[in-house]
Every structure is written in structure tokens, then in C-alpha cells.
Amino acid sequence: MFKNKFLTSTLILIISGMSTKLLGMIIKIIFTRIVGSKAISLYTIVMPTYSLFLTIASFAMPTTISKLISEKEDVKVINTASIIIILLNLLIIIIVHLTAPFIANTLLKEPNCYPLLIAMSYTFPFASIACILKGYFYGKQKMAPHALSNTAEQIVRLVLVLTIMPTLAKKGYVYAACGLIFTSFFTELTSIIVFLICMNKKDLIDITKINYNKIDAKDIFGLSVPTVTSRIVGNICYFLEPIVLTNTLLYVGYSSEYILLEYGSYNAFAVATLTIPSFFITAISMALIPEISKYLAKHNHKLVKKRLKEAFIFALIIGIGFTSVIYLFRYPLLSFLYNDVSAANYIKYLSPFFILFYLEAIFSSFMQAINKNKVTLKITIIGSVIKLVSIFIFAFLNIGVYCLLIAEILNIIIVVLLNYLYTKKYLNSLG
User: Fold this and answer.
1) For the chain, what is the domain count?
2) Percent of the chain with pLDDT over 70
3) Is-above-0.90 flag for pTM?
């Protein structure tokens, strides 16, 4: 097994993910009990906006750098990537400062979101540089540094939550929510330091040279733009999700307090619990990209199909196993994790479909590896439009936040089905 880089990379990332997720769960339990449901709900409302801007800021660097390094075997591409990322992040910080009042007051209809939006903008440059370094190690198929950085991040976050969060919580739930966002600044900085320590000395010297290469830039934009566009579409949907939901439910007659608490319960408790096994899927999908890229470059189609099949088998086993456990033990699990079982019914109806949800990351990584990011973009647009339209339509049935649940299920089924049909067609063309 240890001669198979795909399996060893996946195994290391899974072990890393397990320890990270365990620490993350402990941190979430502590944080939730320290700050209460209001801070959690406020943080949850801002997260779609955070994810949208972070998607643009990071510019799909983990997958882009991973693919370029596995193909070119030249680390100098990081120099060009770093220059692009720094300029892009400076622009995004300015944009966030200019648009934060409008987003908080007009779109999210929650003025208390403003300081959270400002806080999040300063975390982007550090998160983006960390993404470049992650891509370097993914491309080299060296996963141990990634495992170390994840563990170090969570330890730093735990220390910050234990030492700073109680003081911030006493000042108010807005301070507490801002505090959680600012922990990302320190955790990403920790990740960067760990990656630099683990990097090969010769490569470290090469990447510290300021050098902009037009050919590398063209390759980076060629890979990143379609991937980022696809993710932006998905994140725009995620960004618009609370806006469409809030405005439609307010129009129908639901109170803003109900929407805030139920949407927070749905995202922060139900979806967060169902995505606990996602670190397994992330490990598989990230290990898959350099493998598929490498074998496609060598025209070894047999191993391309074999690796994809292995990835799907792993994802299905993990998905079925975890969703079954979460479904059966949803009440004690929610009580233990959050001291709140309000999301139990959301988990009950969502869990069977999350088996399919875990396959989305595998399909996405495969599309990136075969340079079919435009296909992913089209599928994402279709799924996103269906989801937003479904939220709007089903909201008028007076079923509350369940309109979002139905829209999510439809989105998962359609996206996975379209990905499957295209992948099957592509593999058949290989012979």
C-alpha cells in the first residue's frame, strides 16, 4: 500500500482530518457554550459572504498549484502565484470596506454584521498564501506537512477560544462573533509558518525570489479562472441563500427572529453535523488530483479509471457509514455537540441525500484534473439557479426553513446526476 502514493496520501490526509475534526468539534462545543445561540446565528449569517470573498481571494490555489507542480515539477510557479494573490487580496480588502455597509444593512438586513465583514477581510491574505503552500505540498504528494499544519491550526484556535472568547462574550455576542473570525488570522499565520519550516530548503530559496513569469501566469489563470468562476457561482448562491430566504419568509409573514434562529440552527447545527465526515472526502479528492493529472500526462488511462473507481468506493463507504450513524443518533449527537437538538428534524430529512453530496467533491477534483473546469461551471450554475428558485417557490408554502431543505436536496441530486453523466461519457471516450 505504501508504494501507492494515492493511498498513502489519502491515508495521511484522513488521519490528519480526523485529528483536526476532533479538535474542531471540541472547539465548536466550547465556543457554542461560551457565546450562545445569538453569536452563532450572527456568525452563520456572515459565513456565505465570507466564503464568497475567500473563494475569490484564494483563487483556487490549492488545486491549481498542485496540478502545475505535479505536471511541471517546477516550484518557481509559486513566485508568480504569490504576486497575483497579494495584488488580488489588496483589491478585495478595499472592496469589502466599500461594500460592507450595503451588505450588512440592505442585503443581510442585520447591521451587526458590519464589524464581522470588516474583520474577515484582513484574514484573506494569510488564508490565500497558506493555500499556495498547500498546493505545493499536494503537488509534491507530501501530505505530512499538511497534517502538521492542520493540527497546529486547531491547537492555536483552541487556545484563543479558551483565553479570549470568555472576555469577548461578556462584552456582547457581536464581539464574540468577531473574535471567532479573527482567530482565522492567527491560525492561517500558524499554517504558513509550519509549511515554510517543512519546505525543502532549495525550494524555499526559489520561492522567495520575486519573479513574475508570463507563461506561469497564463497557466495559473487558465486553470484558476474556470475553477474560481465555478466556485464563485456556488458561493454567490450561498451568499444569496440567506438573502432570498430572509426576504421571502419576511414577506410571507415569518418574524426576523424566527428566521435568524432557524437558519442558524439549520446551517450551524444540521449541515455542520452532516458535513463532519467531509474531511475524509476532502482527503480523497485532494490526493486524487495529482494522481489523475500524472497518469493522464502518461496516457495511462487504465490507472486513471482505477484511481477514480477507488475514490468513489471510498467516498460511498464513508458516506453511507457516517450518515447512518448521524441519522440514528442525531438527538444525543446534537445534545453533546451543541447542547441544542432543534436541528434534529433537519438532519432526519437531509441525511439520506448527503450520501450523494459526498460524491460532489470527487467529481469536482476529477474535472479539475482532466481540465474540464468549464463543465463544472455549467453544472454549478444549473444547480445554483435551481436551488435559489426552489427556495423562493417553496417559501410560499408556509413551511418555514424547510423550503431551504427541499432546495438543498434538489440541488444535490441534479448536480451529482449531471456530473455522473459527463464523467461516464468522458471515460467511455478513453476506451
Assistant:
1) 1
2) 98
3) no
